[in-house]
Amino acid sequence: MKHAGPGTLDFAVRSVRGGKRAVMDDLAPLATQFEPRLAPAVAKWQQLTPWQRRFVTLDDFAAETPLTASDPNPGNRYGGKVKTKRSVIS
């Protein structure tokens, strides 16, 4: 299990009001309309008990879903690439 430090999904969602619960219970189901690959992740999240949800990291969770496995370079699909804050977005 990966620590929820900088560079992890859990660290990123700390700034969202409600944290991991809000992202997975409220925002992710809405996002499935635009990103169907999220549907299996949302379904799996809903099967977890509250105790499991507390201790699973989003990085471990995402690794078990088709979100990260299918596309080694997802930025190209959207016509741009994610770059550092000092770079220009193409």
According to DSSP, the number of beta strands is 0
How would you sum up the global shape?
Answer: globular
- Percent of residues in helices comes to 40-55%
Our Rg estimate from Cα atoms comes to 14 Å
Low-pLDDT residue spans: 75-85
Itemize the secondary structure elements and their pairings.
Elements: H1 9-12, H2 19-31, H3 39-47, H4 50-55, H5 58-63, H6 66-69
Can you summarize this structure?
By secondary structure, the protein is an all-alpha fold.
Describe this entry's structure for a reader.
With 90 residues, this protein is mostly helical. Helix content is 47%, strand content 0%. The longest helix is centred in the N-terminal third of the chain and has 13 residues, at 19-31.
Features:
mainly alpha; 90 residues
